[in-house]
Input
Amino acid sequence: MGKTLAEKIWDDHIVRSAEGEPDLLYIDLHLIHEVTSPQAFDGLRLAGRPVRRADLTIATEDHNTPTLDILKPIADPVSKLQIDTLRSNAKEFGIRLHSLGDADQGVVHVVGPQLGITQPGMTIVCGDSHTSTHGAFGAIAFGIGTSEVEHVLATQTLPSRRPKTMAINVEGTLKAGVSAKDIILAIIAQIGTGGGQGYIIEYRGSAIRALSMEGRMTVCNMSIEAGARAGLIAPDQKTFDYIKGKPHAPEDFEGAQKYWQSLFTDADAKFDVEITISADELEPFVTWGTNPGQGLPLNASVPNPAEIKDAEERGAAERALQYMGLVAGTPLKKIAIDTVFLGSCTNGRIEDLRAAASVLEGKKIATTLRMLVVPGSERVRQQAMQEGLDKVFIDAGAEWRNAGCSMCLGMNPDQLAVGERSASTSNRNFEGRQGKGGRTHLVSPLVAAATAIRGTLSSPADL
Amino acid sequence: MEKFIKHTGTGVPLRRSNVDTDQIIPAVYLKRVTRSGFEDGLFSAWRSDPEFVLNKAEFKSGTVLVAGPEFGTGSSREHAVWALQNYGFKVVISSRFADIFRNNSLKGGLLTVIVAQSVVDALWDAIESEPTTSITVDLEARTVSYNAITLNFELDDYTRWRLLEGLDDIGLTLKHTDSIDAFEAKRPAYKPKTLPIRI
Output
C-alpha cells in the first residue's frame, strides 16, 4: 500500500525505532524565540551539554518585542531581561539571531519562509504551537514545549509517537471576498478544537491548490486550533517558485526539487480519517465565542445557547456569550468593534497587508475605533513600504507599527483594555488572550479592513 | 525529574471544557527566565472571582485537578505545566487533553490521566459532595481509586517506565549518539543550513 505525504516525511527522518518506544526523529530545523528558550539553555548549562547543530538552529525576537520605538531600550524591565537572555544565550552557544532592527527580525514563522529556509520534506520544530505554519511547504512542522526545545538543542532529535493521518479535502472555488482564513475558520467550526487531536492533517483539493503560498500558510497555521499535531500541503510548482531566489534556497536546486517532487500522497495510500468541504459555499467567517471553534458565517447571528443540545457545549456557549458581552440573536454584523488588529503569524505577510490595503485605499477608518497594522517581519514591513501600503494605512487613519507578535497575544504593550472588543486577524479568541478582559473576534484581513471602515463586523461586500 | 510512583491527595473539580493554556497561565506571566514561581499566575484571570474553585477553602489543599474535556489546548507554553506543578498539583485527570500539553506534562513529571467523561462526572460529584475525598493515583498499577471505586487508565509502557524511574529524556537519547551520527552522515547536501548566514 502507498504512503501519505506525512508518512513519507516521517519515515525519512527516523533515526531509530524500537518496539514499544517512540520513534527518534531527526529535526532538520529548530526555530527559537525569547519566551520558550531561556529555561532550555539553562538546562544545557547545568548539564554541561553543547548545542549539537547550531547550523540547523535560528533565533529571532518576536513575542515580547515592542512595535514602537524599537531601537530604544525596552521599557518593561522583565521583557528586557528575557530579550537580553536570548541575546546572551545565542552568543554563548553560537546561534544565529535576528534582533530588533534586523531585516529578518519578526514573527518566527514569517522569518523561516522569507529566508527560504523552510523547504519541502523537512521536519521543523519550535517552542511555539503555530510552527504548523511551515507545513504549507510540505514539511512536518509542529510546536514543542521547553523540555523538548532543550532536547532538540542537545541532540537534534526528538522522541515522538507517529501521529495518525487525516485528509481534509476542500473542493471547489472560493467566492470573491472569501479567503484562506475563512477556509480554516470554517474547518475548525466543523471539526471542533479537539477534532484534529492526534493527527497530522493534510489539506488537499482544488481550493487548496488554488491558494497562494501565503494562503496555504494561513490554513496550516491554524491546524493547532483544531487540535492537530501538524498540518501540511503537498508541494507543487508554486512552492518551488516561492523558494527559488530566497537567500537559503538550495544551491543544487534541481537536486532538491527532484526530491520535493516525490512528496505527495500516493494514490493508493489510506488516511485514518477523511473529510470533504465545499469551497463554493463558504462565506466570510468570524468567531463569536472564546475558542476558535465557536465561529459562524458573517451573515449569521449570535447563537442561542438554549438551542444547543449538548449540555457541555451549551454551558461553554453560555459562558462565552457572557464573557464576550453578547446577546443571542444579535446579527454578527451589528457588533461594534473598538480595535482592529492586522498582523500575526496567521495573517501578517505581504499578501495579507495587500488585501487589507486594497479595501482601505482612499477610505478612512471609523472614528469609533483604532486600527493597528503590525507586519509579520521587518522584511515584510520594508516591502510594504516599497509598495506604498504604509501610506494607504496611515492615510486611512491606521497605526503603522514595527514587526512582532504584538496584539496576537499581548505580551508587549499592545493589548486590549478590559471590555474592549477587537476584530483580529490572529489565531486565538481565548479569554484575555489580547489583554485581560479583552474580547476577540477572529477575522480575515479583508473582513478586518471592511470592519475598520464601517465600525461593525463587515465584509468588503458591505461597503 | 522526580520519580512518580503513586500519589494520594484530595481533588479540585474544574467544571469547564476547553481550558486553554492562556487560561492556565496568561502570556504576561511568561516573561520569567526560570522554571519556578509561576503559581501566582495559575488561572490568574479566574482567581479574582471569589467563587472560583481554587478560592474555596475546602479545595485549597487539593493536589489532583479534575478538569473538563480538551484541557490544555492552544499555546505550547510549558509554563502551563510548571504553573500547575508550582501551585502543588501532581495529577490532572480529564477525558481529553491537547497533544502538546500532554507531551509537556509527561516530560515534566506532571501525570495527566485520561478517563472517560462519565468517570470525570462521577469524580466531580464525589469531590463536590465530600471535598476531603481521598484520591489515589497509582502509576505502577495504572489505577485511580477513590471511596470504594478503582478504575484503570491507559498509559504506554515506555512513558510509564520513564516516569516511574524519573528518567531524563535527553540522557536516554544521548545513549544513541551513534545512530544520530550515522543518520547525519547520510543526510542530503541540499538540506538547508542556517550557518553560514546568507542574506
User: Anything to note?
Assistant: Chain B touches chain A through 61 residues (CB under 8 Å).
